[in-house]
Amino acid sequence: MTRVRIAASHGERALNENSQQTPWCRQAAAVIPRHLYLKSIGTTLFISLFFGAYFYLLKDPAYPTTVMPITSLDRLIGFQPLALPMYLSLWVYVSLPPALLATRRELYGYGLAMTGTCLAGLIVFYFWPTVVPAADIDWTQYPGVNFLKSMDASGNACPSLHVATAGFSGIWLHHLLRRFGAPPWLLIFNWVWCIGIVYSALATRQHVAVDVLAGLALGGLAAYVSLRYRAEKRTTDYR
């Protein structure tokens, strides 16, 4: 086990040294194919299991459902059906950080952290089920959003796991891009995408502001703890 850790540490150290010489795009292109089957199958399986648990809790929570309050921010941001593609882009976005991880150890650590984030939200959904207030909108006029509403039913509202996983992925992606030495425009693009997903949760009326703030808190805390643990683990392995 010690030899494995030392080997993994040497691999990460070599990656950091190479990042000082190799262009970021070539580093990313070299990392993405590594453990491709594990990344693709693992991501697909995780999303499938998550949706299974999510939809189960929509139908069978432990207690009566609470309607979330509407704030001034919710009134400020009007319904925008064109935000739907950005909302759905989350499932591409969350696939990017694991695609940029180089070792199995990193993948397992990331997967556990993301699982913990989602599990925390699901536990809240089970014991404190919530729903978004009904909006005075004829959803049949917006087929795409109407289909989303028929699937999700605007339940399991707080904390918004849509926002939590976007925030978690955004922080991790920022960390990985910086490790590759990515240019500032790409770091900005990452945050614009992340913020767009968060905004779309309000603009599609899938969530209210309280849900979004709770989701940001959950995702941010989980990302901070997981990255801090990762840094401490790497420091210990280098000794």
User: Can you write the helix and strand succession as a string?
Assistant: HHHEHHHHHEHHHH
Helix content: over 70%
Q: Which consecutive residue ranges, at least 5 long each, have pLDDT under 50? A: 1-8
Major beta-sheet overview: 2 strands, parallel
**Ends: how far apart?**
15 Å
**Helix-strand makeup class:** mainly alpha
Please indicate the percent range of residues in DSSP E strands (runs of 2 or more). under 5%
Keywords, separated by commas or semicolons:
239 residues, mainly alpha, two-stranded parallel sheet, 12 helices, globular, disordered N terminus
Outline of the structure:
This protein is mainly alpha-helical. The chain has twelve helices and two strands.
Outline the structure in words.
The structure is a single chain. By secondary structure, this protein is mainly alpha-helical. Helix content is 72%, strand content 2%. The protein is built from twelve helices and two strands.
